[in-house]
Amino acid sequence: MGGLKIVFVASEMSPFAKTGGLADVVGSLPVSLSQLGHQVSVIMPKYSSIKANMELFHSPMGVWMGNKQEWCGVYKTEYNGISVYFIEHNIFFDRDGLYHDRNMNDYEDNPKRFAFLSRAAMQLCIDKGYSPDIFHVNDWQTALLPAYLKNWNLQGTSIQNSKSVLTIHNMAYQGNYPKSNVEYLGIGWGNFTYEKFEENDRINMLKGGIFYSDFVNTVSPTYAYEVTNGNGYGLDTALRNKGEYFSGIINGADYNIWNPEIDKYIRDNYSKEDMSGKWRCKGKLQDIFGLESNYTVPIFGAVGRFTSQKGYNLIASIAERLMNETSIQIAIIGTGDKDLEGFFSYMAQKYPGRFGCRIEFNEKTAHLLEAGSDFFLMPSLFEPCGLNQIYSLKYGTLPIVRNTGGLRDTVINCNEFENYGTGFIFNDFTPDALRNTILWAYKIYHTRPDLMAKMRYDAMCQDFSWLRSAKEYEHIYRKII
Ligand code: ADP
Fold this sequence. Notes:
Layout: E1 5-9, H1 21-35, E2 39-45, E3 55-65, E4 68-79, E5 82-88, H2 90-93, H3 110-127, E6 134-138, H4 144-151, E7 163-168, E8 176-178, H5 182-185, E9 198-199, E10 202-204, H6 205-212, E11 215-218, H7 221-227, H8 236-240, E12 246-248, H9 276-288, E13 299-306, H10 312-325, E14 329-336, H11 338-350, E15 355-358, H12 363-372, E16 375-378, H13 388-394, E17 398-402, H14 405-410, E18 424-426, H15 431-447, H16 449-461, H17 466-480
Parallel strand pairs: 1-2, 1-6, 2-5, 6-7, 7-11, 11-12, 13-14, 13-16, 14-15, 16-17, 17-18
Antiparallel strand pairs: 3-4, 4-5, 8-10, 9-10
The structure holds adenosine-5'-diphosphate (ADP).
The site of adenosine-5'-diphosphate has 17 residues, from helix 1, strand 13, strand 14 and helix 12.
C-alpha cells in the first residue's frame, strides 16, 4: 500500500508554539506517520512568538471569509522530515498569547482567527494544486474544516476528494461563540441547527466539526468511553451518533525529547540501569525550587495548567496539612488560576525549604522536575490522555493519579503485597482521597525501598512510543478513504 498524503491543521505544535499537550501531539504524531512512509505536513498560525527560521512559500494568498477576502502569506520550514507551513496574518496572530491575553481573557475574535486558519489551510492546498488524502484537524479551533469540505462546492479543486479526521484533545473546550459569527465563518445558516452547530442559540464549533468529520477520535480509550457516557460536556450524543467512526487512541510520548538517557535539558542523564544521575537531578531541583538539600525525603512534583480540570485545588487544600504531618517536599511549576498561583506562592513563603513553586511556563524546569522528583502529582478531575504521567514513568518518577481517562490507561496501581505497579491510583475527587494516597506513597517510600526500586524500574520499562498509536491512526485513515 502506498503512503498517504496527510495534512495536519492545528493551532499549536511543539517546538514552535505550545500551551499544552496538543502541541506535543502535533510535534510528534506527524513525524511518526512520516516514518511509516506517509507524506505528512502541518499547517499552523505564524504567531509572533515563533522564532524558527522559515522561508516565504506563498504570497499573496487570498482567503474568503464570509464576503470578505483576507490576504496573507505562507512561510515554510522543515522539521524532522515533515514540512511545516505557517500562515501569517498579523491582525490575527501577532499577539501576546495564543488564545488569551496576559489576564487570561480569551480573545473575542477567536472563532474568526481559527476559522481563518482552517480556510487558509484549504486555500493553500488549492492554490498549490495539492491533494491531501486526509486533513487531520485538532480540537474546536480547526473543527470547521470538515464542515467546509462537506458543504462547499470544491468540484474541480485539488481537495475535492479529501477526507477529514478530527482529534479531540479535550471535550471541555468546544469553541462556543455568538451566532453573529455565522456569516464570517461561512458555515451557512442552514447549518445552524441543534444537530449540527447550534447550542443554546450560539455556535458550537466542535459540535459541527463532530457532525461533519469523516472520523472523530479522542486521545485515550477510557476518555472515549467517559465522553460518550455522561462526561461529554453535552456532546455525548453527538459522539455516540458517530458509531464506529468514533474511537479512543492513546497518545504517545516523544522519547527523543522526554527520555532521561538523552534529555538535553538535564545535565545529569540517567537510565534504569544507572540511576545516579536522577539523584543529582533531585539535588538540582531542590536547589532551583529553594528546597532543603536532603536526599532522604521524597519530592512530590507537579507541572501543568492551573485549571479546575487538573485538581490543583485538591493539592492546595491538603498542602498545609501535608507540610505539618510529613517531611515531604513539594515542587510545583505552572500558571493559570490566579488564586492558585497566589496560594502556592504563599505556601512557598510560609514553608521555605519544604514547598517550592515557580509561576511560569518553562520547558527546561519542567524536564528537571520530571527527572528530580520521586512522585508526580496528577489528581485530575478528568484527563483526556495526559502526557506528564507518561513522561514521569520514563523518568522513574512514580505518578499519583486519579482513576480517570488516560491516567487510568497508562498507570498500574501499586500492589504492595504482590510487589508490582508503576504508580498510585485513587478514585474519589476529594482532598482526603488524594491525601491518603500521598501518605500511602510516602509510607512505601520509607518502608519499602525494594518495592520503590522495582516500581521505578518497571515504570521506566513502560513503552508509550508513538509508533503504535501512529499505526492506529493509519488504520482509521485507510478506513475512511
Ligand atoms: P494538557 O494538554 O491538558 O495541558 P498534558 O499533560 O497532556 O496536559 O500536557 C501538558 C504539556 O504541557 C506537558 O508537556 C507539560 O510538560 C507542559 N506544561 C504545562 N505547564 C507547563 C509549565 N508551566 N511549564 C512547562 N511546561 C508545561
